[in-house]
């Protein structure tokens, strides 16, 4: 369809990267509250859920639960979920050994500790498939490399 009009690019080019709170002077107490909330929201969830929460904080998309309110747990149906973007309460997640954010088992979701780094299950081995989130890399042997030349 060569008769279709050519679409233009975006109207405004991004000259600078997004920076949260660029033109706002913030009190020290506000900054400390945000960092403590950010750290608490990353405790006990899998690596992928930590990445989601960190992205939301970075681009000012994180919406915390209102003060004094709790969310409903998908397992026990009680109002015990303390943080946004979680579906299970901490007690149910520990009992069932699931991530409270995505409800995946520990084989698929390594739970993170307080620093947001994933816990090791004892084997200490990390595979490339886990780190690349679905990207598969195949390595050719030396014999196959020589035959292609």
Characterise this structure.
The protein is 30% helix and 0% strand. By secondary structure, it is mainly α. The chain has a domain at 28-120. The radius of gyration is 22 Å and the shape is extended.
Task: Give the proportion of residues in helices.
Answer: 25-40%
Q: What is the total tally of β strands?
A: 0
Question: Structural class of the secondary elements?
Answer: mainly alpha
Q: Give Rg in angstroms.
A: 22 Å
Instruction: Output mean pLDDT.
Output: 77
Uncertain spans, ≥5 residues at pLDDT below 50? Answer: 114-143
Distance between the termini: 41 Å
Classify the beta-strand content into a percent band: under 5%
Instruction: Give the SSE order as H and E letters.
Output: HHHHH
Shape: extended
Largest sheet: none
Total DSSP helices: 5
Region (Disordered): 105-149
Biased composition (Acidic residues): 118-133
Pfam families: DUF2039 (PF10217)
InterPro entries: DUF2039 (IPR019351)
Attribute tags:
149 residues; mainly alpha; 5 helices; 30% helix; DUF2039
Task: Outline the secondary-structure elements.
Blueprint: H1 28-41, H2 47-58, H3 90-96, H4 128-131, H5 142-148
Task: Summarize, please.
Pfam families: DUF2039. This protein has 149 residues and is an all-alpha fold.
């Amino acid at each position: 369809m060569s008769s279709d009009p050519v679409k233009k690019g975006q109207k405004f080019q991004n000259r600078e990267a997004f920076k949260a709170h660029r033109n706002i002077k913030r009190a020290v107490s506000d900054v400390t509250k945000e960092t403590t909330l950010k750290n608490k929201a990353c405790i006990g969830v899998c690596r992928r859920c930590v990445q989601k929460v960190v992205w939301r904080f970075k681009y000012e998309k994180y919406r915390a639960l209102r003060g004094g309110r709790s969310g409903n747990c998908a397992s026990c149906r009680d109002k015990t979920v303390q943080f946004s973007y979680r579906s299970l309460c901490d007690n149910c997640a520990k009992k069932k050994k699931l991530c409270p954010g995505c409800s995946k088992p520990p084989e698929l979701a390594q739970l993170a500790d307080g620093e947001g780094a994933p816990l090791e299950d004892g084997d200490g081995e990390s595979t490339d498939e886990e780190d690349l989130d679905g990207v598969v890399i195949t390595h050719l042997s030396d014999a196959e490399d020589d035959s292609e030349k």
